[in-house]
Amino acid sequence: MVTELETTTGVGATSRATLDENFVEVTDLGVTFDTGTGFLQKRAEIVAVDGVSFRIARGRTLGLVGGTGSGKSTVAHVIMGMTPPTKGSVIIDGLRVGAVSGRDRARLQRLVQVVLQDPYSSLDPRLKVKDIIAEPLSLGMGARWSRDRTAIRARVLELLGLVGLRENRAERYPHQFSGGQRQRIAIARALAPRPELILLDEPTSALDVSVRAQILTLLKRLQEQLGVTYLIISHDLVTVAYLASDVAVMHLGRIVEIGPTRTMYRSPRHPYTLELLASAPGASATFLTQPRPSGSPADLPPGACRFAYRCALRTRLGNPSRCVEEDPPLVEIAPNHRAACHFPDDVAVMADELKQEQDSATA
Q1: In terms of residue numbers, what domain contains 304?
Q2: What confidence score (pLDDT) does residue 105 get?
Q3: Does 35 map to a domain?
Q4: What is residue 13's predicted lDDT score, i.e. its pLDDT?
Q5: Are residues 227 and 311 both part of a single domain?
C-alpha cells in the first residue's frame, strides 16, 4: 500500500438499527444526459453513470470516492430523487426511488436526508437556527410534529444538544456562527425527521483541519448512537477512511473497485485506487511520477479499459493488447472485494513495492 491511514471503522448499529444487507440497493444504475440545445445542432449524449451497483447495510457507511466527473455526485442525486435514472434502480428500505407515490413517497422523503458541502450556502440566512432545524418538521416530514409548536420546539432543542450546540443558539442566524458550527446546524436539520439514511456530500471539505476532525467525530458518534446509515461522497480519502466501513472507487461513471475499507487501503487491486492513495497527504509520490500513457479517454478504441489512457501499470507491463481490446468487468478477487482490472495481482505487487519504499524513507 502507498500510505498508512487510520481506518477506525465499525457497524455503529444500535437496537434501533438491525443489520440489513438490502437496506440500500443500487442495481445497474445508468444516467445519460442529452447535450443537444438547438434545432440544427447535432445532439450528443454524455454517459455520467454506467452500470453502477452496490449495497449498503443498515447502520453502516459506504464511501463513494472518485475524481471530478467520475459520476459519484450523480449517483447521490439519483438516490435523493433529484435526477431520474436512464436505466437500473435504487431501492431504499423496500421503496423504489422515483416509482412511489402518496404515503410511500412521503416516507421516502423522511427516510433520506442530505448534508451538503458548504454549510453557509445550504442554510437560509433569513431564518433563525430554530426555524432552519424545524423546517423539515413543519413541512410534514415529521407528521406528528407538523402542527404541534411545543413538540417542534422541544425537538429543536434536543437536536441542538445532540450536535453539541447550546440551546440559546436557537435564536441566532447562520452568519453568527463559525463554519464548523454551521455544519453542526446542517446535521441537526438533517436529523430532524429521524431519517435512516443520510447522504454526506463532501461534508468537511469547506472546513479547516481542526474543525474537520470535530465534525467527523460527531458524525461517527451520531451513527453509533442512532444507528443511521451514511453514504459519504468525497475525494478526501482520510475522511472516508475514518467514517466508511466500505469504499467504492468510481472512474468515468463506473465503479472500478469496491470492498471493505481496511482491505482496500492496505491492498488495493486497481491502478486508479493506487493513484488516489498515492495522492493522499503524507503518501509517497513515487507512483505519481512513474511512466504512463498520454492522451485522453477519447483516444481509446471501443471496448478498451476506461483507465488504459493513463494507467502506469499498463506501461510497466509493456502495453499489453488486452488493455485496449477488452474492458475488464468488476469481478470478485477476494471475499467482498471486487476490482475491474485484468492484472489485479500486479497492482498488489506495485502497492507492496511503494509501501516498502515509504517504510525505508521514514526509517
Answers
A1: 267-362
A2: 87
A3: no
A4: 38
A5: no
CATH number of the domain at 247, please.
3.40.50.300
Same domain? For 302 and 229 the reply is no
Cross-sheet strand order for the sheet of 95-96:
45-56, 24-34, 87-92, 95-96
Domain end: 203, 220, 251, which one?
251
Q: Given this model, what pLDDT does residue 147 score?
A: 61
Instruction: Show Cβ contacts of residue 318 under 8 Å, excluding neighbours closer than 6 positions.
Output: none
| Shared-domain flag, residues 274 and 230 | no
How many angstroms separate the CA atoms of 33 and 160, rounded? 40
**26 CB burial (10 A radius; 0-12, 13-18, 19+):** buried
Same domain, 228 and 318: no
Structural domains counted in the chain: 2
pLDDT band at 138 (very low <50, low <70, confident <90, very high): confident
Instruction: Give the strands of the sheet with 61-66, arranged side by side.
Output: 112-115, 197-201, 229-234, 61-66, 246-251, 254-260, 337-339, 331-334
